[in-house]
Design brief:
Largest sheet: 3 strands, antiparallel
Helix content: 25-40%
Structural class: alpha+beta
Distance between the termini: 23 Å
Shape: elongated
Number of helices: 5
Number of domains: 1
Number of strands: 3
Strand order of the largest sheet: 1-2-3
Strand content: 15-25%
């Protein structure tokens, strides 16, 4: 949060940029009745979503875990989006829905014909996100356990660096 924005300054201010590099863990949890109990209960009456809906998402999650490039891109999008949310910043964003849909197309293309058709139809109808809701909830970013690896002050033509062991 900037307390003295440039447009309100009446005195000379020197500004520097600090680059901070840190590691953050993202836990990925299999979709089971126990892991989703807080936000999904299957409807056995036929009125709502059945457990098959969650099972299909778990198959999607398992397929995503096998597609290393897609998984890495998705993890970067999660970390970036969560970081932007943590900072309450509109400038730092994760993947857009369209970027995510394109990324996930490769994932569901390798699934069974039935699952592939389901996710392809959801993408075509613009509701893919709603049909991978549990997949998104399976990824949890551990910001409290984040570790700063490198801090650097950037100056014109040089940088002053403080590394992990110098804190």
């Amino acid at each position: 949060m900037v307390e003295n924005p440039p447009e309100k300054r009446s005195h000379k201010v020197i500004e520097r940029t600090c680059r901070i590099v840190f590691d953050v863990n993202i836990r990925i949890t299999e979709i089971t009745t126990e892991s989703v109990a807080d936000y999904f209960t299957p409807d056995e009456t036929g009125e709502g979503l059945p457990w098959e809906w969650a099972e299909r998402q778990n198959r999607f999650l398992l397929a995503l875990l096998q597609e290393e490039e897609a998984l890495d891109r998705f993890l970067m999008g999660i970390a970036k989006g969560d970081f932007g949310f943590l900072l309450d910043s509109d400038r730092i964003r994760g993947m857009s829905d369209d970027e995510e849909d394109a990324l996930f197309e490769k994932v569901f293309a390798g699934m069974s014909d039935d699952d592939h058709a389901f996710f392809q139809e959801a993408k075509r109808d613009g509701i893919l996100y709603h049909n991978i809701e549990l997949v998104h909830k399976a990824f949890v970013t551990d910001w409290e356990g984040a570790n700063i690896k490198n801090v650097r002050v950037l100056k014109k033509g040089q940088s002053v660096q403080q590394t992990e062991g110098e804190r």
